[in-house]
């Protein structure tokens, strides 16, 4: 009896998904061991899966207090999951292959292309080397700056570990923290710089690194221009809006001086879009600020970065498409460049799929967690799907079914709803048949 080989043939997207699932499972097993908890007891396996998913998907949502519940072994497992999840497991597979001297196959190159969201497979190995070197270098610099503050307070070993953990967590946009640090402006600014660096994407930094003269700026790709422009727009507008919304709020920034108000407004704008580090009390924020956070979380960072969300390039294409339609133009134009129709369609599909996924999880959680307000549940769903990790205190009280829904949200948010859906479909090469044009009334 012969088996149909097609039943066992999986594509690159499926391998990518299985790789993330394997990492989460291994992390969950390690976190469930008594050596991982301060009480030296077995941690509930679902709670371990939740934490492993949150770390691997660089989300930051946690059912327990990360700083006090886990031992250094458990925290090291979480740190490793954040690093692997932030860069993608294929980057580390490439590192192991390079260290062992093994040749990278064509299929592995295709996997790296999917993992890095790259344009093509040319130069991927060089790109992977650059990503690893760049990541460890930035994290090392972040660790050095943070250790100046953490080591005098916590001692050499503990302070160094905290410095490494927060540097990796910030660069990978995970938002998991072990100790409070929000009263230290130097740490807040360092964390902000790491978050922004990680959220811009490796492709953008590779182009920036390649600039040798000021005149070379004109040669920067449209992708990098859009990522940098959108990042600046969102950071500045977010800072201004948070400043306005919380300026007189006595429970958040109302009693601060002007300098601290600007600092925490900037940090809220930086962290809300991708990382999820807390700065001011989320529960005490105004509704306008919470609504702004939801929008920023849903947008996210750049493609090929450690951030989640629908991505800033997707947002830019959709916004410019709307503007082009209003202006009566047939094509979407950005920086005097025409965006291909397939990218416009894909952006719209990503937006629709991600909205539907958030709404479905919101409706299911609304039934399961009926004791919570709709506002709180919706915020949690967007936070999980955007892999941001900000929470209004709802996570710790999730039921078993509620934890599973949030786990699914985090996983879909990290890999992308469209990516997972495409991995489950049998895509065929489109034929050359074109049906007759017709019209419909819309709007």
Automatic annotation (TrEMBL):
It comes from Clostridium tyrobutyricum DIVETGP. The keyword ATP-binding does not apply. The chain crosses the membrane at residues 13-33, 76-99, 130-151, 187-205, 226-247, 292-323, 343-365, 404-424. Its main location: membrane. This is Potassium uptake protein TrkH. GO terms for molecular function: potassium:chloride symporter activity. Keywords: Cell membrane, Ion transport, Membrane, Potassium, Potassium transport, Transmembrane, Transmembrane helix, Transport. The lineage of its organism: Bacteria, Bacillati, Bacillota, Clostridia, Eubacteriales. It is a multi-pass membrane protein. NCBIfam families: 2a38. InterPro entries: Cat_transpt (IPR003445), TrkH (IPR004772). GO terms for cellular component: plasma membrane. It is found in: Cell membrane. The keyword Nuclease does not apply.
């Amino acid at each position: 009896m012969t088996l149909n080989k097609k039943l066992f043939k999986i594509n690159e997207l499926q391998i990518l998904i299985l790789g993330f699932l394997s990492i989460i499972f291994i992390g969950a097993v390690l976190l469930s061991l008594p050596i991982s908890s301060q009480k030296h007891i077995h941690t509930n396996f679902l709670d371990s899966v939740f934490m492993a998913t949150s770390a691997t998907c660089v989300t930051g949502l946690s059912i327990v207090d990360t700083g006090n519940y886990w031992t250094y072994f458990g925290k090291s497992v979480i740190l490793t999951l954040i690093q692997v999840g932030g860069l993608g497991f294929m980057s580390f597979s490439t590192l192991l292959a390079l260290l062992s001297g093994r040749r990278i196959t064509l299929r592995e190159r295709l996997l790296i292309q999917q993992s890095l969201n790259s344009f093509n497979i040319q130069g991927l190995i060089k790109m992977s080397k650059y990503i690893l070197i760049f990541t460890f270098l930035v994290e090392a610099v972040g660790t050095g700056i943070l250790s100046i503050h953490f080591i005098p307070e916590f001692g050499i070993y503990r302070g160094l570990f905290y410095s490494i953990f927060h540097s990796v967590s910030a660069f990978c946009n995970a938002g998991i923290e072990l100790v409070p640090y929000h009263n230290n402006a130097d740490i807040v600014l360092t964390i902000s710089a790491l978050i922004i660096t990680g959220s811009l994407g490796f492709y953008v930094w590779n182009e920036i690194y390649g600039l040798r003269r000021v005149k070379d700026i004109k040669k920067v790709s449209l992708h990098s221009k859009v990522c940098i422009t959108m990042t600046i727009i969102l950071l500045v507008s977010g800072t201004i809006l948070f400043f306005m919304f919380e300026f007189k709020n006595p429970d958040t920034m109302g009693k601060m001086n002007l300098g601290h108000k600007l600092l925490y407004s900037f940090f809220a704008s930086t962290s809300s879009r991708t990382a999820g580090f807390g700065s001011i009390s989320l529960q005490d924020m105004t509704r306008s600020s919470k609504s702004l956070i939801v929008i920023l979380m849903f947008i996210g960072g750049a493609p090929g970065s450690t951030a989640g969300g629908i991505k800033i390039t997707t947002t830019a294409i959709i916004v410019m498409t709307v503007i082009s339609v209003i202006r009566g133009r047939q094509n979407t134009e950005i920086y005097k460049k025409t965006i291909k129709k397939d990218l416009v369609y894909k952006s719209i599909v990503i937006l629709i799929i991600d909205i539907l996924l958030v709404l479905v999880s919101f409706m299911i959680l609304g039934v399961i967690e009926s004791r919570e307000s709709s506002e709180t549940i919706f915020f949690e769903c967007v936070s999980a799907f955007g892999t941001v990790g900000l929470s209004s205190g709802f996570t710790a009280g999730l039921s078993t079914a509620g934890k599973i829904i949030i786990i699914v949200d985090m996983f879909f948010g990290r890999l992308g709803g469209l990516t997972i859906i495409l991995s489950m479909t049998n895509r065929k090469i489109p034929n050359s048949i074109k049906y007759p044009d017709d019209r419909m009334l819309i709007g």
